[in-house]
Write a structure and sequence with these properties.
Layout (H helix, E strand, L loop, with lengths): L16 H13 L2 H22 L3 E9 L11 H8 L1 H8 L2 H10 L6 H5 L2 E4 L6 E8 L2 H54 L4 H29 L5 E5 L11 H26 L7 H8 L3 E4 L13 H15 L2 H4 L3 E5 L6 H16 L3 E6 L7 H4 L27 E4 L5 E5 L7 H5 L2 H7 L7 E6 L8 H5 L5 E6 L6 H13 L4 E6 L55 H8 L1
Parallel strand pairs: 5-12, 6-10, 6-11, 7-9, 7-10, 11-12
Antiparallel strand pairs: 1-3, 1-4, 2-3, 8-9
Helix pairs in contact: 2-9, 5-7, 7-8, 10-18, 11-13
Amino acid sequence: MSQHVPGESHGMQPQDEPDLLRDQFRQLLRYRGMIVLGVVLGLLGGGWIALASGDEYIASSEVTLRQVSLDPFSSGSDATAIKENIGTERQTAASNAVAKIVADEVDHPEDGEKLQHGLQVTNPPNTLVLRFDYSADDPETAAERSNAFAAAYLAYREDKSKRTIDNMVEAYDDQVKPLIAERDALDSEIESLGEGRALESALSARSSLSQSIGQITADRAKLQALDTTPGHVVRDATPPAEPAGPGIFMLLGLGAAFGVGLGLLVAWVRLVFDPTARSESDVVRALHAPVLGTLPRTRRPGGLLATGRVAEEYRSMAFRLAYDQRFADRRRLLVVAPRGSIDIPAAVSVNLAASFVEMGHEVLLVEADLRTPSLSARLSAADGVRPGWARTPARGDGGWPTGLQIPIDAGESGAFDLIPGTRVRNAARALTSAPATQLISEADAPGSVVVVLAPAVLSYADALALADRVDGVLVVCDPRQVHREDLARIRELISGAGGTVLGAVLHSHGSGEPDAGGRGRSGRGGGRGGARGDGRGGEAGAGTGVPAPPAEATGADYPADSRAVRSSRR
């Protein structure tokens, strides 16, 4: 039997990353409820913001700045000085001092700070312009206050310049007064002096004083001649015709987009912390084995044997197994579930047995569930039909096998033999007994297949006792119910017991779900108590799944001519 290296064909490869991302996105879409809830919350939030904020109008006015200078048409260095201080001017325009001027103009001097709340002053890049944007719930108010702030800023800046000039002029006056008084004193002294060096010195001192007085007077005159106009309004604010802001439809759209993002984020967090194997790829990564089939989500009208789409899916699984080199050599298959009920694994084992019969194999179905056996009570016996290779099994010392081998009617597929389970005191001893091993070795015959149904792996150790006696294990699970850690644990347990996981069969709640007491494919035979190994009646499996005593299951109860049997089936 060829060895399979876990992860060699089913592990993650670098080229699988786009497929992994697509799979994760598909898994996110499974949380549609969270995404829809996020969209609803986003729409409600956008609507609430639109209704609670009301209509807001924004009016804008613009002011171009200039430096105080002698020449009102000068540029260059003055413009550079303004650019260097444009940030300071913007802060000044939005200051409390300017807001107080506006408050005085609108006769609300106590509301200066409140008036600032609706103001925003900006400077368009590479310009000497300040833009005053004012928002209010009334368009007229917005325009009025935008213009008021622009005018107040210019007035404040001009007043500041004039006060600076007045202070400097006053300082010049204070400097020139003592010089004029000293000059007047020298004039009186010069009138009384005669010719000589004293007169020359007095005249020289007077000339110096006159020069100083003239310089100060000239500087004072320049200050008084300065143009203190700080700038001009180049754009008056007008009442806006429509409210500003995104509007209710835009807010609803933004809310919906935010809701989608929020829903995807919550779904992603839920996915990250979700322990279940939500998808086929999760099962493949956990088991290091392929998914051989997925049962359609349909409820069958009758017993364990499937029809229609479900039956076709089983046939596909059987073909995949038949050409798997790990299984094709000796054809021994163990069917298990991770936890809980084995109703669906029972249906899988029965239908795979029927599918193998259709492919021309002689099939033996072994019910190794020695705790809650039920197959004999749920399948229909094929009276008078038995595979030619079948023989009455030996009876185990632990109470199983019981020596009973029942031909099962699989309808149009044919018939296969069932070794029913029975309740025993020590299941592990019975499953590892020599008669049980001999049962499984029936697959060594040419063209034969043995399918073994065992209890859940993580509930009992029964399946592990059989893992090294079969060629592969088939795990039947619902990816939305089983945890990824459970699947990884199953792989470790089976590998540790000397077995190999061939693959998985996926189902969801209601897909391929068996209906106890239903009819088989052929529509013949009873449900409860219908499968009897003696062909004559009795209570084999009636209600309890316990078969009739093995003394009743002898080779004389079945046709001895195997060739006649095979020709009648084929």
